[in-house]
Hints:
By secondary structure, the protein is of the alpha/beta class. It has eleven helices and eleven strands. Strands 8-7-6-11-10-9 form a six-stranded antiparallel beta sheet, with helices on both faces. Strands 2-1-3-4-5 form a five-stranded parallel beta sheet, sandwiched between helices. The longest helix is centred in the C-terminal third of the chain and has 25 residues, at 286-310.
Amino acid sequence: xxxxxxxxxxxxxxxxxxxxxxxxxxxxxxxxxxxxxxxxxxxxxxxxxxxxxxxxxxxxxxxxxxxxxxxxxxxxxxxxxxxxxxxxxxxxxxxxxxxxxxxxxxxxxxxxxxxxxxxxxxxxxxxxxxxxxxxxxxxxxxxxxxxxxxxxxxxxxxxxxxxxxxxxxxxxxxxxxxxxxxxxxxxxxxxxxxxxxxxxxxxxxxxxxxxxxxxxxxxxxxxxxxxxxxxxxxxxxxxxxxxxxxxxxxxxxxxxxxxxxxxxxxxxxxxxxxxxxxxxxxxxxxxxxxxxxxxxxxxxxxxxxxxxxxxxxxxx
Length: 316
């Protein structure tokens, strides 16, 4: 992972190097905006961290300029500012800044920021220009998750994920279910043109055969045959709206060691804090299934980490 840090204060550059030394990241240092632009033209960068107040072109002018550059405008930009709620920060947000890092910042704050973008990976590149629209929709979803992560807002992250999946894959119904103290699961958020029936607002892990598979495997479940469901509330509902595709995505509780790597082969031993349940009128191709699985794997650590960061606070 490569970060471009633009800052005219040499002491901050030294501090960032020291704070990120334990992590496997590469930091490219620019001491002016122009130097940062030159670096961008010859290096692949995962995200940019830029101060606002600098001589010559400042951070806000740089942000506005980079968002007009078709070759660079997909790179996430985080603004460093002493006043994240001030007028300059509001302008930066309007210009497309993903988030803000308050100055002075701590090592924990910087590491959290870097972890967020390490999870997202290279989200702004595409190998096939014919996939431009799909890529932009995926990028929009991941950028919203990044913003929600930096805002420490779990509820927004959940809503961003389900609405983003709806926009990309045209789900008719998508919902998030969260585990309760009794071990049951309750619907917390939903999105789409078709509402889930009342009988599916609170469910147990073995309510349907697909849910049973989800809880046994702790991995993404896809079916192009939702109309064959034998569970009465689902059967009547999907037949009424001709919803022939079903998707289940787990939200696994990941600790710090799994945060960057994802669940990996350790899925079955993890606790499932929640899951996403989606239906649509239209079958899934293998490629679409792979894309959804990738988005699930990328988004899971961010949402799980947000839930763990908030602890016992009310999430909704």
